[in-house]
């Protein structure tokens, strides 16, 4: 059996390579008598000189994904930093931004203690799409009250109950 080396170019990945026909015997072709594709030849016919196509130009890098929709948290004053966000475990309509006068890293113990005290769990961010009212509660806690659980009136009552002030 004549062994013919053949080359291929994978344009999508921009990879060029060669395989020996023996490595690819029992290929997916149903006919075992068919020959492997012959490489393109250059020069005189019959000399068997072969070349591969030049590799494709470097593909352009994929475009960056669109930036995440960023909502500005209401109620954060100049000089305050958001340390994290906490979802209220007893009230699915309330989520709070925990702030302080300076940016600092909370330890895992600090986070656990704060979550226990506030009856909440730490989350990546608070949803801001359906916020009906933002309340500035004591100790740097800014609570977002969201619909459908809250209306503006019920959120105002809850804010007053927690000794907070409505953020305009």
Largest sheet: 6 strands, antiparallel
Shape: elongated
Strand order of the largest sheet: 5-3-4-7-6-8
Mean pLDDT: 74
| Intertermini distance | 85 Å
Proportion of helical residues: 10-25%
The SSE order reads EEEEHEEEHE
What does this structure look like?
The protein folds into two domains: 1-58, no CATH class; 81-166, no CATH class. Helix content is 12%, strand content 27%. A six-stranded antiparallel beta sheet has the order 5-3-4-7-6-8, covered by helices on one side. The protein has a two-stranded antiparallel sheet with strand order 1-2. The protein has 168 residues and is an alpha+beta fold. The chain has helices at residues 108-118, 152-161; strands at residues 5-10, 15-20, 81-88, 94-100, 120-123, 131-137, 141-146, 165-166. It contains two helices and eight strands.
């Amino acid at each position: 059996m004549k062994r013919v080396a053949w080359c291929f170019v994978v344009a999508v990945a921009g990879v060029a390579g060669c395989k020996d026909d023996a490595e690819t015997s029992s290929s997916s072709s149903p006919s075992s008598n068919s020959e492997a594709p012959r490489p393109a030849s250059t020069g005189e016919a019959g000399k068997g000189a072969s070349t591969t196509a030049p590799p494709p130009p470097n593909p352009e890098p994929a475009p960056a994904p669109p930036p995440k929709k960023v909502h500005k948290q209401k109620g954060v004053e100049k000089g305050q930093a958001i340390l994290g966000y906490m979802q209220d475990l007893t009230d699915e309509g309330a989520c709070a931004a925990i702030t302080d006068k300076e940016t600092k890293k909370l330890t895992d113990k600090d986070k656990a203690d704060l979550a226990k005290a506030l009856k909440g769990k730490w989350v990546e961010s608070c949803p801001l799409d359906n916020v009906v009212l933002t309340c500035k509660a004591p100790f740097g806690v800014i609570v977002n009250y969201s619909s459908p659980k809250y209306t503006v009136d019920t959120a105002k009552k809850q804010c007053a109950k927690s000794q907070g002030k409505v953020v305009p």
